[in-house]
Design brief:
About 35% of the residues lie in helices and about 25% in strands. It is of the alpha+beta class. It folds into two domains: about 40 residues; about 55 residues. It starts with 6 loop residues before the first helix and ends with a strand.
Length: about 110
């Protein structure tokens, strides 16, 4: 279903997006600051039990996975013989190839 977007709603959405971009720029004004936050987030996730994806189960069993650039936690498995296999993400009844960065057993 498509809902038409009127000018007022479009302007509001653009203003919200601009404020979000300005807030990110304030928190991370340069690449070094952004990398530092990425490093801190990675460390915190490890403290919460997440591990580097290369240590995931390789027996086809399911585990939780995080992909760079996504805010989701997905069901995932590794299929094939290491290191030539593939990671597969299961979401909304679909399966997609993936390159996750962290995993945790479900």
């Amino acid at each position: 279903m498509t809902i038409p977007l009127d000018n007022a709603t479009a302007e509001l959405l653009l203003a919200v997006a601009k404020r979000q971009q300005e807030e990110r720029a304030r928190k991370m004004p340069c690449e070094k600051d952004a990398i530092r936050q990425l490093f801190e987030a990675h460390q915190r996730l490890e403290e919460l039990g997440w591990k580097n994806i290369i240590y995931c189960p390789k027996d086809g069993s399911m585990f939780q996975a995080i992909e760079a650039g996504s805010t989701g936690i997905f069901e995932c498995n590794y299929d094939g013989k290491w290191p030539n296999g593939s990671w597969w993400i299961y979401s909304d009844g679909d399966v997609s190839p993936s390159y996750p960065i962290l995993f945790k057993k479900a």
